[in-house]
Amino acid sequence: MSIITLTTDLGLKDFTLSAIKGSIYSLYKEATIVDVSHLVPKFNIIQAGFILKNAYKHFPKKSIHIIGVLPYETAQNRHVVIQYDDHYFIGNDNGVFSIIFDDKPTQIIELDLKNITSNNAFLKPTKDIFVHAACHIAKGGTIEMLGRKKADYNQRTTFKAQTSEYNIRGSIIYIDNFGNAITNIPELLFKEVARGRDFTISFRVPGYDIKTIRKSYSEVAPAERLAIFGPTGFLEIAINLGNASQLLGLSENDIVNISFS
Amino acid sequence: MSIITLTTDLGLKDFTLSAIKGSIYSLYKEATIVDVSHLVPKFNIIQAGFILKNAYKHFPKKSIHIIGVLPYETAQNRHVVIQYDDHYFIGNDNGVFSIIFDDKPTQIIELDLKNITSNNAFLKPTKDIFVHAACHIAKGGTIEMLGRKKADYNQRTTFKAQTSEYNIRGSIIYIDNFGNAITNIPELLFKEVARGRDFTISFRVPGYDIKTIRKSYSEVAPAERLAIFGPTGFLEIAINLGNASQLLGLSENDIVNISFS
Amino acid sequence: MSIITLTTDLGLKDFTLSAIKGSIYSLYKEATIVDVSHLVPKFNIIQAGFILKNAYKHFPKKSIHIIGVLPYETAQNRHVVIQYDDHYFIGNDNGVFSIIFDDKPTQIIELDLKNITSNNAFLKPTKDIFVHAACHIAKGGTIEMLGRKKADYNQRTTFKAQTSEYNIRGSIIYIDNFGNAITNIPELLFKEVARGRDFTISFRVPGYDIKTIRKSYSEVAPAERLAIFGPTGFLEIAINLGNASQLLGLSENDIVNISFS
Fold it and tell me: Which of A78, A176, B95, B157 lies in the 20 to 30 Å Cα band around A72?
């Protein structure tokens, strides 16, 4: 019995999210549905990808992850199911997958489900196409039956931090529930560029540079700022038992710079 | 195994929602519970009805829908279970059902469950009475066993748009997660009155009249306003990839007028 | 099949909550997971305890309740599983249990799960330690196998209302979804001190004293203030069909005083 997860920007008030769940149960009544997040900012594929990238690996292998953010196909962006790390990801190939994956996927199938009818044209991509594909897999069907193989998915390199000999220039991509400001600078990239040199992390607010990276929030006193490779593996600016975003005035898209001596 | 859905104004923070779910599992541990919405504005039966009207039809037949908004009985408003479109609706007959149903229900039963005890008088209607009825049905019991037949439910005609030869006068009943402003003007009513004539849709903000109805949001450029019979089948004022409510200053209860030449 | 409930301050947007659910399904795929609340204010063990205290008793006996608020162990605060009222509570012994329990628990086990590995150090307490313990119990394991017995949990007497011959001095510990301001004054304590005497309930806003306790919100006219021992068994200041917190300017931590003649 496979798990089907949902990551959308639909919010929690409207009828749309439960319509999707109702459609899943209509096709596959034994489904186990798990909400990853429905509070993705509207149309924000970076955050949708970031949330699911961090969430999916805690689920059992063979779990099926539906991404319902900007789900409408264009000539360039096609509906796909991607097998990666022994999980299945179903969504619109609008760039979101270049956030989720670090390595090459096992297989990419462009969905060919023209026969799927819908009682709701607006919700059709997520509620009918993606749900049909998910329930097909959950019931034991192969992904090859859902369409034709595709060599690659759409890459979006602009989401990545930029590096030079003396510098890493990234940005804040996510403010979490505790106000931690999470950047797009992964620990591995930092280590590669740093090579043990001293460094200065600077951001929007002058005078608050940070020169140490901590292993846990409690290494500094309550209300003190710190930098840490947090639960996501990305560098974050945090305040021990406090809200870094509010207290330091940090927002998504703010530049975070690390300079090396 | 029937699905039990929940539509309430209880919010997501308090203990009350999980108390209801705990009560369901206490009576029927195999239950599949689905949240429709708990962010219904407090006491707002129009929005509760609107959300459930649009959600329920995506669920499997025989699903059971509990409505926990203004659940306290009065002499006029009685607890009922209503069979409609091969689904079951359980709630207080406070007017909410005249939003949900377009046609005559198959059957209406006024609940007679005086023997139900409760460990919480305040939550008793939803947590004990409605949950008892829902679990009874989910376990295969007939609705006739829950009370006595009733000829009709309470109608509320004031919720409907008004029409004349040259005019439809409706109002915005719902702002969705994307800021789309949804009116109480259904497509069928529009077609009946319009009979192919030209029209002008006007609303609170002068100078932003709309004279065309679109088939999809992307028919207009990003950030352009449009009118559309959206996912709900009701006329909505939207902005392609933007927030119509914020950008046009539209709120629930605002008048939307369509005049015909 | 036991139910596992979750009470956290993780919010509903981040990846962390679904990571915990994924971990539960990875260990025990038949789990029934119920969200109690994830909107507990950050680090607020009083509110976490208050919500779960009121929620748990509506669940079937043998349910397992994970509390993921301030979950990091210290020398004084240890990870425990506590059997109480034929339910299981798993969390960090940071004081939260003195809110939840009125009587002595059946058994307290300090968790000794040093062999548990984690793919995420930050989430380890809730996602790995507590989840491991919960799934162990859900699968029928004894709690004695999870660690060693402990005589007591950490008490926090400062959370309780103070009394004298002529006075009860409490505070508002929770504002619910309807704006009701709930105090830490339980009905039993009130009756013990009152012994039938007249009383005056006063709070932050002068001129709004209350001298009667109601049995239901509707005993007063709509928009009228009242005091009531509400669904939680604690005294609350409410407004019938209105928002007492907003209209009377009441906030968490405000003092509520009852003086007896």
Answer: A176
Dist CA C108 CA C128 (whole Å): 20
Closest B-chain CA to A121: B231
Model confidence at A8, pLDDT cuts 50, 70, 90, reads: very high
**Burial (CB count within 10 angstroms: exposed 0-12, middle 13-18, buried 19+), residue C209:** middle
Query: Please, which chains are in contact with C (at least 3 CB pairs closer than 8 A)?
Result: A, B
Q: What is the mean pLDDT of residues A242-256?
A: 95
Angle at B102 between CA B98 and CA B106, to 5 degrees: 90
Sign of the C-alpha dihedral, residues B130, B133, B136, B140? negative
Q: Looking at the domain covering B160-260, what would its CATH class be?
A: mainly beta
What pLDDT was estimated at residue B231?
87
Cβ proximity of A18 and A8 under 8 Å: no
DSSP A246: H
The 3 state secondary structure assigned to B54-87 is HHHCCCCCCCEEEEECCCCCCCCCCEEEEEECCE
**Of A177, A228, A241, A252, which to mutate for an interface test with C (greatest number of C Cβ within 10 Å)?**
A177
Q: What angle do CA A121, A124, A126 make, to 5 degrees?
A: 150
Q: Do A35 and C26 touch (CB under 8 A)?
A: no
- What are the structure tokens assigned to A195, written together? 């090579």
- CATH 2.40.30.90 residue spans of chain C: 160-260
The verdict on a CB contact (< 8 Å) between B15 and C55 is yes
The CATH number of C3-157 is: 3.40.50.10790
For β-strands B199-203 and B255-260, DSSP reports them as antiparallel
User: Across the B/C interface, how many CB contacts are shorter than 8 Å?
Assistant: 78
The B-side interface with C (CB below 8 A) comprises 9-16, 18-23, 25-26, 29, 42-43, 72, 119-123, 127
Q: pLDDT of C89-99, one tens digit each?
A: 999 999 999 99
The predicted structure's pLDDT at residue B204: 86
Q: What global pTM score does this model have? A: 0.95
Q: Which residues of A38-73 are buried (b: 16+ CB within 10 A; e: fewer)?
A: bbbeeebbbbbbbbbbbbbbbbbeebbbbbbbbbee
Per-residue pLDDT tens over the stretch A130-156: 999 999 999 999 999 999 999 999 998
> Which chain B residue is nearest to residue C39, measuring alpha carbons?
B13
What does the alpha-carbon distance between residue A5 and residue A64 come to, in Å, rounded to a whole number? 6
Task: Please report the DSSP string for C174-220 in residue order.
Answer: EE-TT--EEEEEEHHHHHHHHTT--EEEEESSTT--B--EESSGGGS
Residue B26 to residue C58, Cβ atoms within 8 A: yes
C-alpha closest to that of C161 among C99, C90, C69: C99
Q: List all residues 6 or more positions away from C83 whose beta carbon is below 8 Å from its beta carbon.
A: C89, C105, C106, C107, C108, C143
Domain with CATH 3.40.50.10790 in chain A: 3-157
